[in-house]
């Protein structure tokens, strides 16, 4: 009896430690984000005094007002939105079109293995930064939005993910469609794509998040800052600390905002679309990752 | 026979060619370009076909650079620490999460730790620079509250690698946890019941049921991460470092960026990049071989 009670108590004790560790690590992931949100809504005075922790002090929308009045910031956000839309559309078409032939058995598609290695090789080996930059320059994409879309338009990892999904689909449907006279294009469009919605949602979300978050290509391919997508602009403002307050003359406005509160607001705005879709994202992604990594 | 084949198969070729062509231009042409430029004194005005050849001069130059030894060491050192921590933390976290019996609680923890993965290094670095600032950052306010001296996390060479590894684990451990958790959920519950009946404690069950059940995935992830031994994480370091911590934080990729795009020494940067690609490919081939042999993993 005593032994049983001891065992029970021991279980409770280890449960306590377990939950404490899980809780602390979860909060460590969330805390910095909440802190930045709190700073972004605080006055410059409160932010400088260091009293802001998880809740805004002397709450004000001034930093956000400042951010949304910056023409360059809004234009960069628009470029990012266009970029995500274009890249998602192009990526969707190219990924589906490439994954279908690669999902065929070699006897149905003679070049299949050769093509597959052609695709996979670029996962292993690249020419590096400078030659890629030269190629983008020579194909006249510099300073256009296509420089952000075209060089990475074939996400090979997504192709692999989708082709593995295609392979798991029942072949019977396809065979009966073929008997009815459907060609490859029709089979892809009418059977494979509608049946692959979970995989397509995963790869599409992958593409959208990657393009929203990418800042480096904007930094190297755009000569003019007017062409920067949002994350690239954020990089130059928050990380490289380029001039910021050239447009603020008003002393009263300066009392409410500071570099620190404005940077925090800019970070929050740039993260906002991700946070907004996150609940939808993560459900798909869990499936997607498992789909892409664990195979029989 | 051949004609019949073509008649059936031409749509498949047609489908795949747009992707093939784009990969050719933006993946294979740069590879070819690198093979030229690394052995030339590349002059952008002349292009790869007219620039003079210099043999191995660029490689001789990079290995005689006084910084090269330090940069190679930093790269391997930071990357290895990230690989080890990036394996152990998610495994431990998945094992702990697996002990949580209430599904909703489990999912909540999982959702929270997974969040930083979705944010860019620009955003996360912006946050880190703010919270780690010696003057107004909340971490140093807390340290000051304990009566200690402020820590210059991002400008002190003793601290910088630690910040890199910790923040990388912070960003990515939730992502990797999912993979291990998937492996854990596929373990037959009867094994746990049997172990319990035999009197195995929670610790013993973890040691003798959970860990062996995860072993194939652990081996796979470990093997695949071997390919990253020269990838110390460009985006993260580029956004967090500064001249004060070049000594401990400068890695191959940041060096390529500086000598290539900032100093316009195209050939030298390409030679460094090519060296990195070749070594990386060597490790990837080995790791793929290991993954195939020990975890029966195939790419497609």
From TrEMBL, chain A:
<dbReference type="InterPro" id="IPR000515">
    <property type="entry name" value="MetI-like"/>
</dbReference>
<keyword id="KW-0472">Membrane</keyword>
<feature type="transmembrane region" description="Helical">
    <location>
        <begin position="145"/>
        <end position="166"/>
    </location>
</feature>
<feature type="transmembrane region" description="Helical">
    <location>
        <begin position="84"/>
        <end position="102"/>
    </location>
</feature>
<feature type="transmembrane region" description="Helical">
    <location>
        <begin position="187"/>
        <end position="212"/>
    </location>
</feature>
<feature type="transmembrane region" description="Helical">
    <location>
        <begin position="114"/>
        <end position="133"/>
    </location>
</feature>
<keyword id="KW-0812">Transmembrane</keyword>
<keyword id="KW-1003">Cell membrane</keyword>
<dbReference type="Pfam" id="PF00528">
    <property type="entry name" value="BPD_transp_1"/>
</dbReference>
<comment type="similarity">
    <text>Belongs to the binding-protein-dependent transport system permease family.</text>
</comment>
<feature type="transmembrane region" description="Helical">
    <location>
        <begin position="263"/>
        <end position="281"/>
    </location>
</feature>
<keyword id="KW-1133">Transmembrane helix</keyword>
<feature type="transmembrane region" description="Helical">
    <location>
        <begin position="17"/>
        <end position="41"/>
    </location>
</feature>
<feature type="domain" description="ABC transmembrane type-1">
    <location>
        <begin position="77"/>
        <end position="269"/>
    </location>
</feature>
<protein>
    <submittedName>
        <fullName>Carbohydrate ABC transporter permease</fullName>
    </submittedName>
</protein>
<dbReference type="InterPro" id="IPR035906">
    <property type="entry name" value="MetI-like_sf"/>
</dbReference>
<keyword id="KW-0813">Transport</keyword>
From TrEMBL, chain B:
<keyword id="KW-0472">Membrane</keyword>
<keyword id="KW-0812">Transmembrane</keyword>
<feature type="transmembrane region" description="Helical">
    <location>
        <begin position="12"/>
        <end position="39"/>
    </location>
</feature>
<keyword id="KW-0813">Transport</keyword>
<feature type="transmembrane region" description="Helical">
    <location>
        <begin position="266"/>
        <end position="291"/>
    </location>
</feature>
<dbReference type="Pfam" id="PF00528">
    <property type="entry name" value="BPD_transp_1"/>
</dbReference>
<keyword id="KW-1003">Cell membrane</keyword>
<dbReference type="InterPro" id="IPR050809">
    <property type="entry name" value="UgpAE/MalFG_permease"/>
</dbReference>
<protein>
    <submittedName>
        <fullName>ABC transporter permease subunit</fullName>
    </submittedName>
</protein>
<feature type="transmembrane region" description="Helical">
    <location>
        <begin position="173"/>
        <end position="195"/>
    </location>
</feature>
<dbReference type="InterPro" id="IPR000515">
    <property type="entry name" value="MetI-like"/>
</dbReference>
<feature type="transmembrane region" description="Helical">
    <location>
        <begin position="109"/>
        <end position="129"/>
    </location>
</feature>
<keyword id="KW-1133">Transmembrane helix</keyword>
<comment type="similarity">
    <text>Belongs to the binding-protein-dependent transport system permease family.</text>
</comment>
<feature type="domain" description="ABC transmembrane type-1">
    <location>
        <begin position="72"/>
        <end position="287"/>
    </location>
</feature>
<feature type="transmembrane region" description="Helical">
    <location>
        <begin position="207"/>
        <end position="230"/>
    </location>
</feature>
<dbReference type="InterPro" id="IPR035906">
    <property type="entry name" value="MetI-like_sf"/>
</dbReference>
<feature type="transmembrane region" description="Helical">
    <location>
        <begin position="76"/>
        <end position="97"/>
    </location>
</feature>
